Amino acid sequence: MSLTESFKRSQRFLALLGFLQVAFLAMAAEPERGTYDRPFGWEKQSRSVAVGKSGMAATSHPLATAAAIEVLKEGGTAVDAAIAANAVLCVAEPMSCGLGGDLFAIVWDSKTGELRGLNASGRSPASLTMDEFQRRGVTEIPLFGPLPWSVPGCVSGWETLHQEYGNQEWDRLLKPAINAAQEGFVVTPIIAGYWKSAETTLSERPGSRKVFLVDESRSPGTGEIFKNPAMGRTLQAIATKGAREFYEGEIAETLAQYSEQQGGFLTLEDLASHRADWVDPVGVDYRGYKVWELPPNGQGIAALQMLNVLGGYNLKQYGPGHPEYLHRLVEAKKLAFADRAQFYADPSMVDVPVKELISQEYGDLQRMRIDPDSASMQVDHG
């Protein structure tokens, strides 16, 4: 059987699995009972725990998981598998992942016993200053248009991780994503729903309308096979010429030219000067477990702040879904997000008080702000 025939057969099989999954979920989601029909184990658990002895991959899409597993079977590292999976997600989940996005990674090096973090997020264009925002009368970064554009960091993240921890050929890792883009992939129910919600926005721009809408008019539906040959060509260029093609080659030139045409600030110099940075993860202890995140400019430490607040409650007595559990969870999130809006920023530009924000002492103080009987309607930062 050829690779193409095998790929198409797997697509049909995954489509069948997708429809069966919807059917089973519909049968399982009975609000009267609030439980799943499980013969053994915890009755509120919707899926069985996955177990194995050699390796494991978990993603939000079966094609991405399959790509990662195949790389592991061929002797690739966990990082190789992650790159292959992430590339597939760029194709199969375009509303969530993409070559225009950023990459953050936490890597445990079993040989050295070292936990390392990679921040491959892109910086703002050098020419886009606060003065420009003030001149335009813009008080917050808009969702659309050229002002929110930053240098895409995803591909540089792949490159940096692969150089440090990969052992498979670069083009091998991108091959599953290229196949999915060129041969097409089956659109699953959740992806179809998110795609549909973006249909109007995508239709307003010629480029997105041409690439992401069927017949330039509608989003693909559940079970439909969608092809993205443009993405396939871009991925093939990266696979053949290397990651620097994205930042210094024809792809970079195309990005810079488009930015100029749209009145944007992203330039070829911005792309060429981009770099990914290795950083030290930060962590907190939650009931005997060390939980790690990357420090800002990302927002991962919000989870650590929440854990410090929640650690003072006996949540186990309530269980998932209990009103008392949900109330404390939501209130802790409000507190963390208020701090996120006030303090999280680029540490190369602003002194972010990470140590203080994730300290247990601060978490104890924040917990005192939660009213156990009432939801807070206005939450100020700490």
Distance between the termini: 62 Å
Sheet with the most strands?
3 strands, antiparallel
Percent helix range:
40-55%
Rg calc: 23 Å
**Please, what is the average pLDDT?**
90
Account of the protein in words:
48% of the residues lie in helices and 8% in strands. The protein has 382 residues and is mainly alpha-helical. The strands form 3 sheets. The protein has a 3-stranded antiparallel sheet, with helices on one face. A two-stranded antiparallel sheet has the order 3-4. It is globular and about 55 Å long.
Question: Which labels suit this protein?
Answer:
7 strands, 48% helix, two-stranded antiparallel ribbon, 382 residues, mainly alpha, three-stranded antiparallel sheet, 17 helices, disordered N terminus, single chain
Present the secondary structure layout.
Layout: H1 3-28, H2 62-73, H3 78-92, E1 103-109, E2 114-120, H4 130-136, H5 154-165, H6 170-183, E3 185-186, H7 189-197, H8 199-203, H9 206-212, E4 225-226, H10 229-241, H11 244-248, H12 250-261, H13 268-272, E5 277-279, E6 282-286, E7 289-293, H14 301-310, H15 323-343, H16 354-357, H17 360-367
Antiparallel strand pairs: 1-2, 2-5, 3-4, 6-7
